Amino acid sequence: MAAGTKVNQPETSAEILMLGYLCVKGVEGLNEKVGILDRFGLADEDIGRICNAKSQSVRNSRAQNKKSTAAK
User: Fold this and answer.
1) Where are the domains of the chain?
2) Average pLDDT of the segment spanning 54-58
């Protein structure tokens, strides 16, 4: 593959992103939003787009959610 060639990856449909946004519209905190949106099986980038956050922040929230679940 030549340098600079972008691999075509299927994008999440606008309908799924809108549904995700509506599900977390009134939710406070990124950790809670990520916990809800994880049920949809969305990629980090998609969750970040919905929550207006960086994908690394989404990964950090997932890790914190796993820690808090394991501690219970």
Assistant:
1) 28-71
2) 96
